Request: fold
Amino acid sequence: MSDVTTPEDSAHIPTPQGAFALELRIADLLDGVTVRDASNAGDGGSETQPARHPEQTKQAEQGTLPGEPLVPARARALPDEVDNVPPFLAQSREEKETRPSDEFTPESSQLAGSLPSQTTSALSDIEISEKKEATPASTPSPIVHIRGRSDGVVIEIGVGTWNQVTAALAERLESSGGFFRKSNVALDLGSRPVTEGELKEIAQMLAAQEMSVGVVRTRSERTFQAALAVGLAVALESSDGAPDAAAMPATAHSHERETDAKGYFVYKGYLRSGHRLRRREHIIVIGDINPGAEVISDGDVLVWGRLRGVVHAGAGGDRRALVAALDLEPTQLRIADVLKIAPDPKPGHPGRFFWRRSQHKRPEIARVVQDEIITEEWDVVRPGGLISLKRGGD
Amino acid sequence: MRGTVITITSGKGGVGKTTTTANLSAALTQLGQRVIAVDADMGLRNLDLVMGLENRIVFDLVDVAEGRCTLQQALVRDPRAEFLYLLPAAQTRDKRDVTIEQMCTICRQLVTMADYVLIDSPAGIEHGFHTAVAPADRVLIVTTSDVSALRDADKVIYLLERDWRRQPGLVINRYNPRLVNSGEMRGIDDVLDILAIDLLGVVPEDERLMLSTDRGTPAAFDRRMYVRRAYENIARRIMGANVPLTDYYRPGFWGWLGRVFGR
Reply:
């Protein structure tokens, strides 16, 4: 029964100090939000929501609309660390997985991995990563954790610089005195982004001990691609520990074009609350993105439907990325390091969960212009189509 | 003939899973169906209270699962109905004490005895939820129209589609037509707009419903309550009848008359 996550299990997770730090971060963010709201109010309190009326769009084109200049550091922190799962969570998940024939391990472990609210989880991730930076040397958990299992050996790589990792691994392998000889290794890299060279390095170290890497488990898209390039079997898990269902069918697809970042990924159907789609390619969603769902792409995001969740285009830092949707009403919109949050609903409004669509709503495109995300309605009569959207590089 | 297992779940707590289970059981049994209600909320059982059968419980689901008694011994009969039984949860045990396999085995036996087996799922999306959903032929999602309940319902639908390949039906609970009419609350269309699943029924808000659950008399047994009409309609729709949705918007005398007489 080790697979069951009880509320107590997840309740012990934040350490007192961690909880305190998290609180600080929330307060911090709230500060930022209020400041931004205040600036909006100062500009006449006009709407900054992506769903906008035509005349407002014109304003936006003239640059009079109050957009949100972002705090780049924080926004930049988001894309890379969304994937982060604290090492102790990763460990507890590992323990849970030991039970065979377990139908819903993904789900139960997901509970430990993810907090229900998207913002809080992002926050805690940031907080944790900052803690890591603050105390790199004195991490309580070992950098490299080796455990024997009936079907082989699991090597978990924890927190630390790559040199520390290799040193610790060499030391552990040395001290084992060939105990793990000829064993098949499952290499759990957590959310650490690992390059191809580093992967090869580890494979060589293991080969020196006559061990072979059977499978690489990672929660980082970058590591995933690197492992594919090196030619290792690799399993990509989403940050909540569940195998990324949407990513599975496309594994072969991305293998074909492993070096081609300009590919695209098509998702058909609803993306519901808690669903997280993360791809390096451009993402095309044919269906709706509900509040609470996340779509993250290194390229553009195109939604043939209603976009109400959180979207991050150009997560690799490409500010030229676009977000386009038939109905663009995101709770939060991010392009590269620029971020825009939905405005608070007007009094008497049923809430942003259901922004009422105006009757003549047009598709919209969001992009970054001078450190701000602006949205433009698609217009049939625009001369030359979307001239302004042409990219410099292409 | 094999019966149907229906799990009633919601994700969020307090939206009325237990009340819905009790009232749907009562409504189905009044339509001449043989019904067994199963409380899957181990450790926090209260379906027995809502159904008013607390003092009759001798054995519970965990006893059956662990072989301390037969299934027939654990079933508690509701004296007000022709064929309505309750399989109570254990109050002293934990959600982990029943595995998915045990739950499926029990439900396989139950469907041979009854037309409908209604499982009251615990709140949350942990083990208890999966245990309750695993044996289900159909899943009912209960939600109110407030944002948190909708967000949780959306997540539950996602989980059901991902892990169990189920398309659930929706019951909107505590629907307040007055607030919807004045534009302050989300209406049925708004809810369906986001959840995009089949609507099985709408239960209007009624404070007497709370009193009836408190007294242990499901509203569906109480002929004086007009909410029972809502449950009866849901029960008919579960049985496959095409019952038009009651229009709670219609104001005035004729609207009231229409609601009373069920159209």
Remarks:
- The domain at 264-342+361-377 of chain A is CATH 2.160.20.70 (Pectate Lyase C-like).
- Residues 210 and 319 of chain A are 46 Å apart (CA to CA).
